[in-house]
Fold these 2 entries.
Entry 1:
Amino acid sequence: MSSRYEVVIGLEVHVQLLTQTKIFCGCSTRFGSNPNSQTCPVCLGLPGALPVLNRQVAEYAIMTGLATNCGIAPRSIFARKNYFYPDLPKGYQISQFELPICEHGWLDIATEEGGEKRIGITRIHMEEDAGKLLHSDDGSGSQVDLNRACTPLLEVVSEPDMRSADEAIAYLKKLHEIVKYLGVCDGNLEEGSFRCDANVSIRPWGQKEFGTRAELKNINSFRFIKQAIEYEVERQIEVIEDGGRVVQETRLFNADTGMTRSMRGKEEAHDYRYFPDPDLVPLVVSNDWIETVKQDLPELPEAKRTRYQQDLGLSDYDAEVLCAERELADYFEACLALHSNAKLCANWVMGEVTRGLNTDSIAITDCPVSAERLAGLLKRIDDSTISNKIAKTVFDAMWGSDQAADAIIEEKGLKQVTDTGAIEAIIDEIIAANMGQVEEYRGGKEKVFGFFVGQVMKASKGKANPAAVNELLKKKLQG
Ligand code: ADP
Ligand code: MG
Ligand code: ZN
């Protein structure tokens, strides 16, 4: 269907920053408090109140800029974006316009063909959020809650470099992962901490000029963003095939119908009468500051994945899973620091630990088995005190208690039996009780060997050392 047209997508992402206080005043950013309880003359927009920039916001902006390969402006300017709306008491939003703090960045995304594609980042600027309107159900009126007014946001604007919904999602997920790793945003799409406006246009293949774009707003999941873009592309194709023209406008996505509908004509920058905010001095960022921030940046997901593969010898898949969340990677690394076997560590974190967390719906940061205790368990697998199978029993016991692996192994008598005398005694019994199978084995039916291993392990309650069992069984069965 879309084969006659090329799709062009540019994304604007609003990233809500995890600062304790607002961008231009000391009010708390805590979510869910009583309406208007976290306000002051500055965020209420009272005449004469003066904004002061929160240093943490600038630092988070610099971190995000560095992590997305942007240049950091030595001097940037706050501007007033003028418009009227009841959730914006000042009548303008403080944002950045001509001189944003970050410019000319990029992110590389994986393409479906297995290659990489570079998506340009035009700019990242700082701005304040507006308040929130609460509309009564019976239509009797609306109220405004200004707790959210002045909450710090970064707006990350991409170049129109994406050519499909899948590329847009790949870019978004990458950006999402980065801001979460940096700890500048909680990344909650549903609650609006990471929100995306998608600009979508189409053009006939080979045409140089871009087509007219529609901007899709209010989409709160990756799945819906993909759905909205795909719907919008089909809609635009139909408009053009019917001889019409796409108009520049803002459209809303409806998750229930999967469709977009026109909300308003698109405003242009000049409609906002941007001008430098006379209440705020230009922000000067020294090289020293940038260097300090750079030094303190955490290892980013891409670098971490590469390191896990190259230095720890983990597979592509393992690296991907472990690095998906910084907290999971942190847990893995804490365990690894106390235990040198990376593969065993990875298997347990991705296996039993993750399974337990999923079953009980808990976050890795609240994992009942600390990385230290897990490392204690893995040591006992490595030194053959217990088998991998028994280790799972010990792990389950650890999940429900504060005990160390060693204490549980001791208490439950789970130590692997490596004493050959004890194993031999069991084997003798099993052989005596199963002479029929012994004959079969001696007659060349080697499969029966597995039966004997199973019987011996069972009789030892899983505690016999499997290597010793194998060796001794072979000897005894040959007779
Ligand atoms: P505005 O704030 O008015 O939406 P910006 O220039 O800040 O304008 O952002 C425009 C966004 O739209 C950018 O992400 C840009 O890449 C994208 N864009 C611009 N032109 C097109 C187009 N023709 N098709 C798709 N996306 C576009
Ligand atoms: Mg826009
Ligand atoms: Zn305030």
Entry 2:
Amino acid sequence: MKIKSDFLVIGSGIAGLSFALKAANKFPDKKIHIITKGTPEESNTKYAQGGIATVYDLATDSYDEHIKDTMIAGDFLNDPEVVEMVIKQAKERLDELLNWGVDFDKDENGNFDLGKEGGHSKNRIFHHKDITGYEIERSLLKKVKEHPNIRFYDFHYAIDLITEHQVYGEMTSLESEKTIFGAYVLNEKSKEIHTFIAPYVLLATGGSGQVYKTTTNPFIATGDGIGMAYRAKAKIADMEFIQFHPTALYNPGESPAFLISEAVRGFGGHLYNLAGERFMKKYDERMELAPRDVVAKAIDSEMKLWGDDYVLLDVTHLDYNDFIKHFPNITKKCASLGIDIRKDRIPVVPAAHYMMGGVIIDKDGRTSIKNLYASGEVTRSGLHGANRLASNSLLEALVFSHNAVEHISKVFDSPYILPSIPEWIDTSTHRNMEKILIKHDLNEVKTIMTNYVGIVRSNERLLRALRRLYVLYQDNKRLYDHSEITTDLLELRNLITTAYLIVEFSRKRKENKGGFYNIDLDKQQK
Ligand code: FAD
Ligand code: SIN
């Protein structure tokens, strides 16, 4: 079946939903389709805790300071023009969220209660208790569903982007000629594959934390956008830069890992090793509020030094009533595991959290494929450089989704003549393959990435990872060619591609920066 619209949005996190709302308002007579795999709300956005970094009041904060903090966290690999553009736009985007009904916490005087996180020189994080993402996702979904010209397709999985390659075949699909025409999409309930056609497409599929064993990202974060963009030959960069959040709750067997927000350290939480030493003083004068890569590396080093499985986050010295007001969800989670934060320290470990690299976009959210825009965690916009400053990613998604709609409104071509798009051709031979093989391969990808491509990498580890991933790639291809197309098989395909890109980009990088650390380069640098 062919399903046509003017705009196709892939993904229903903050990037996709805010784009859809803006496009629907800007083009009241046009049709906007949102497709998302699984349930509408499941996304990284839903789990965001800390909040959105915004310079709101120039009497107490400044753009320059937020810019400087972002550049320092990014190890100066950020694009300074992009950093400035995003940070100066933040207030406008935040006001829009307020208009869309998002509720940010205020203090007893009615002023916004601004939090602090690692790498920030000022309190500038707008939040809704410790469930900011949940509040944003709730408000945006409500708005989107009320909008008459937005149609929402949940349980719809985008398999591949449609470009000249599918329309005219291999020979004509030169990189410079690529244009987007839509996407092939699996209806996860009926199992049919539909052809979604649109002249403008937004890729907003989020991150890929599921490539690692321990991650704060939910199960949907499988690098699908990276896989699709790579196969469509869109330009991709910076895949070696992975952010490990220093403090996920240590609770073996729980997946995804529950996050203990960095805002807890911003609120005064201290880190100790199991020997009782407040170890951050050995690593960085900013102590627990150094940027994430520094704290995560310090924890990793302490765990290795002492042979421990975790370190401890202490909040026992903080005012309990104040703490519970700011962090009700974290307090509840700890209590459910028998951790009384008034007297017990919280066991924490680093966990894969955010991918700095992705599909290259310009300031207007344009990818290297004509009319394919992208926004949010799937992108590499130039904002984050080698490591993202805390609470800058929700902001990034809002800004680039806004810019993309603004850009489209300048170039919108109507009526837009699309070529005749072929329907999906099922070439698989449907041999009866055991489904358990997918599970085995998934575990293997996660093991390879965790053992060889984690916080500390080496040339030998990266080579091992590459060789093993190649075997998995071949096995996956056989499964793909001979089995029924299912979400888990497609996700595995994208996870293998994403893992491969992380490894390949890591092997090419010759200098340690931000979220990338190769011990062999360290020896050379010394
Ligand atoms: P997502 O919100 O992940 O949305 C992606 C969407 O795409 C989902 O709906 C998904 O189902 C859909 N999708 C994926 N693949 C397909 C496919 N093949 N077909 C169809 N649909 C697909 N950032 C901050 O700035 N502040 C914070 O406080 C903060 N806290 C965080 C806490 C946690 C635990 C986590 C995991 C992240 C946090 N982040 C935070 C990061 C931030 O939440 C994400 O970077 C951001 O929400 C990404 O938004 P997005 O719209 O790009 O992607
Ligand atoms: C957190 O609350 O620690 C997460 C913030 C972020 O990832 O930006």
